[in-house]
Amino acid sequence: MPLANGGEITLKGISGSPGICIGQAYLVDQEGIDIVEKYYIHKDRLQKEIKRFKTAVKKSRDELEATIADIPDNLRQHVDILETHKALYKDKMLYGKTIDMIKKDKINAEWALKKIVSDIKTMFENISEPYLKSRVTDIAHVSDGILRNLVGAEDVDISEIDKRVVLIAHDLSPADTSRIQLKRVKGFTTDLGGRTSHTAIIARTLNIPSVVGLDNITGIVKSDDIIIVDGQAGVIIIHPTDETIIHYQKLKSQYEEYRQIITRDSQRPAETADGHRLKIMANIELPEEVKTIVTHGGEGIGLYRTEFLYLSKNRFPEEEELFNNYRDVATAMAPGSVTIRTLDINGDKAISDSSDSDEQNPALGLRAIRFCLSRPDVFKVQLRAILRAAAFGNIKLLFPMISGYKEVIDAKKILEEASFELEKEGINFNKNIEVGIMIEIPSAVVIADTLAEIVDFFSIGTNDLTQYTMAIDRGNKKVANLFNPLHPAVIRMVKRVVDVGKEKGIDVIMCGEMAGVPFNIPVLLGIGPDALSMNPHSIPGVKKIISQLKVEECQEFVMEILEMPSVEEITALMEKRYGSIFSSIKYT
Ligand code: PEP
Ligand code: MG
Questions:
Q1: Top-confidence residue, 505 or 80
Q2: How far is the CA of 315 from the centre of ligand 2 (A)?
Q3: Residue ranges per structural domain of the chain
Q4: N or C: which end of the chain has fewer CB within 10 A?
Q5: Which pLDDT belongs to residue 227?
Q6: Which CATH number is 3-30+156-261 given?
Q7: Which atom of ligand 1 is nearest to the CA of 462?
Q8: Is there an atom of ligand 1 within 6 Å of 532 CB?
């Protein structure tokens, strides 16, 4: 429900990318293409109607080609998905069948196309293979383009927008997002999308403030409305009062000034007030983020989420593509290490079609390592690529979502097969790669001592560990207020895993969102993992907090909170004890 204050409306969505912008709204979505009329075509005019359809297809394809040609270098990795869209324009299922239907049913092209797309959607509903299912989204994007040209609806060319606006869209396709001109667009908001959707990922690559997942922003905002986007808070304000605008202008300049200072300071190592050093690393989704890690003082990549490379395609990538990608990241990050996590798809991840998957509980389903073990062919391609890239840089391997011993054994067996094959083929690779597992399922915490015997390191994923421990869907807005890694159960689990690591002599790194929130740092310092890994933009704030804390005090503090029964009490004590230090961090 929007919150209204006088004429202004505040909406809460999901933070897509941090930063604040204030400007005029620009509604991107085209109207009219949903209202498609059905009418019959006389048989003498059928050829003309088919020609009209073909012309619209050609026009849409030409437009897409122009978009591809204009894609800036820093977004070239998204070209593949657009190339797939290009191929779809001549796809038999879409193109051929629409023409057949125009002929057979003697109906107008718009109606035939809509009907064919709807049939395709129904057909794909019964398919569980995620990559095939993801074609539906592509088909919808492509058919929208054709429909727009058929009905003559005006297509808003994002690259032509020249008024420093805030884009408002139902969804931004990869093509749309890649066409955003930073000089002309201040920020954007969308009805759909989550933090890990393509749109949010590209927004972070572009460093453009955005709020996604607003449900119905396109139904509320009109072009030219004044709007404030607070990407950090995941909040937008429509029709802000003069007072609010002044307030946010101030916040914006404070934010920018603060970021400049803190980013400059982040080049220093993370050292506590009593002289302990802690390794601070970064989580990335795209190779381009390596630059941000370096400018924000990261010492390596603690978590490379590799699924996004798969998500940008409608097929599993080839070994060579993966190898090049991993080698480039390792080379760019050298001498820092790069922990490559194997494919973690399905569940709560950013697969656009996961919601129509036939799994009742996708987060408990065929996700991550389970998927990979069920598709050794796909898994082995990735493992070979990682092993090969590891010959060129400091690469470690990480298996996600481990729930038991046998999964690790099975995964390592496929890794051994991959090594054996590479050896036999005489291909250069690193035999001695370190192998770690994500500890993000409670069963893995309980048997951490056993698991520690067969791996080189642990990486604690508090996002999933909190989700699975507390039975709170991490992506469900309705229970988001209950999701808290400071729950005593989660804190105790994290402590146990770190203690096991110390006892067994293996490194423990923390890579969930918990590690990037300054408020959590006293607890984490007290628990004592070997490294923290986080969104590169969070590094400066975390380093600043670390520099003001003393390890011994934090250890005592952890002993106190381990006795506490609830999040509320823990949080209250944290505020009391560290409130003055937290107030030195204005933004996260
Ligand atoms: C986690 O679960 O905490 C984690 C780091 O992995 P992801 O967010 O990719 O599931
Ligand atoms: Mg996880």
A1: 505
A2: 23
A3: 3-30+156-261, 43-151, 266-585
A4: N
A5: 95
A6: 3.50.30.10
A7: 3
A8: no
